[in-house]
Amino acid sequence: MDPKEQRRISVVIPTFNRKETLNKTLAGYRAQSLSQNQFEVIVIDDGSTDGTGELLNQLRKAESNISYYRLEHGGPARARNLGIEKASSDLILITGDDCIPHPYLLDAHLKRHADAHGICVLGQISWHPEIEVSPLMRYLERDVQFNYSSIERHKNNVPFRYFYTSNVSLPRKYLREMGGFDEDFKYAVWEDIELSYRIWKAGVRVVYEPHAKVFHHHVIALEDYLKRQYRLGLMGALLYRKHPELCELVPVGETVNPEIQHRFYHAMLDYYYFMGIQSGLMAEGELPEEAKKISVIPLEERIQNWNSLWLEKFHYRLLDARRRIRDLEELMRDKDFILKAEKENIVRRDKVIAQRDAMNDQLRRTFAQKDLLISELTQFAERVKQTLAYKAYKNIRRILRPNRL
Per CATH, is 3-221 categorized as 3.10.100.10? Predict the structure, then answer.
């Protein structure tokens, strides 16, 4: 079948109450370098209440390669699973409703999969030029949310913790074999890493393709990100319960670390001190109004008993996780030993085969020499039989022994 007559990649986008940004994102797929019959866009509305459904109904009528399904609000994991189920292509691109694609996004993903089969392809994510990037967003881009400096160092075998579902593609069969996203994860945190961890354990490699680009059209405020961090902790606890061996990735041990308490007090005291300096420098005469009504973030109660709050509850889980890590390390050492022994056996086997081949060559040469000698002797005998002396000899024998000749 002509590849131009079939869809070659399915784009799965979960969305929730981002109608305007989603509209810009879908416009980016109308501007792709691929023809529209080479891809489809599947949008899963995760219970939006801002008119997203009306927008998608209009777009679906106008564009044949856009599909739209609606769910009651249940989180991106469930929404993505529905999109994967409805996809008609063997290759899936998972992205976000706030990730506006570069015109060559899909082309770059397809080309990388054509170069190497059976891989996951992680693309590039950067802030959209329309939005103003705050210092917080620069910090998140550099150290927290999208750590491409580390990814660049491992671009042909990206660690599973960098499986960003804002821009990642993979064969649908892997998603089905792994059972898709774990729908116990109700928020957009850790559900992608949990899936990536299972894919990594199955031996599937993630590679980085910088030419597959999307632009993140999402302004992040500190208050919103603090709420996300809390959800990150909630779902991190769920990840730890499912995979205790990931206790280094989800540092549950830090919940009983007194240094966390000290860092909290130090950061808060510095924050309010420097905030006061800035307010004082901007004030003209009277003290600023916030000095009279300022209130401390209500976290003090949470850390008063920091050292002992969860110690007993998680102590044995930590010990069990460390035991599992030791078991895994021992298993890896055993595998390394077995692999080394197998390599040595292969080397010995190759030597034996080489010796056998040498002996076979020697035997072939010996048989060839034997055949040559027999041929020469046969020819010599024929020549002797043609001589007068041999004929005279035969006649004399016939006379002397007539009964035997």
Answer: no
